[in-house]
Amino acid sequence: MAAYPPQHWQPDDTLVDFLDAGLPPVYIGFGSMQPARAQRLGDIAIAALRRARVRGIVQSGWAGVQAHGDDVLTVSEVDHQWLFPRTAAVVHHAGTGTTVAGLRAGVPTVPVPIAHDQPFWSGRLQALGVAPEIVPLAELTVDRFAHAIIRAVHGPVHRSKTEQIAKELAAEDGPEHVLRALEILTGHKAPA
């Protein structure tokens, strides 16, 4: 389930074969949500993917979400940095790590916030123009979910924005900015 699985993670043949078998799929993952809603989420995911006429990869996560069909694959642990660039869009809970992985991948997103800081990150994704809309988990319906997926996959503005942001992130030296901010806050220069 982790965004950063064990160091030597490799995709299994089933995942590689699925990716090779057609157009890039939509990734759907709800992070560390608890199991109470797993069956409902799996059913909504399958119906929304079918209605949007796209293939999907659903990550089971802590909740154990399962979604099976001709054009749907359920996975457990997967490296988001490896998978996301191979997708048409990413649907996720808008946790910090998954948000960053989606931005770095340069693909549009559909945030489905559940709790904590997720509404904040969802709002940022929409403000950046990489997400067509925010679909809070409490308001998730097949129609709304399918509509958001269609807009993310087929909206050229969202794709263009995400590609631009991915390039900017790739060129940025994030650790250097953090180091300089810490030097300013502490009044001490970091050793070279």
From TrEMBL:
Q: Which UniProt keywords apply?
A: Transferase
InterPro entries per the record? EryCIII-like_C, Glycosyltransferase_28, UDP_glucos_trans
Q: Name one GO biological process term.
A: antibiotic biosynthetic process
Erythromycin biosynthesis protein CIII-like C-terminal domain location is 66-183
GO MF annotation list? hexosyltransferase activity; UDP-glycosyltransferase activity
Under the heading CDD domains, the entry gives: GT1_Gtf-like
Q: What is this protein called?
A: Putative glycosyl transferase
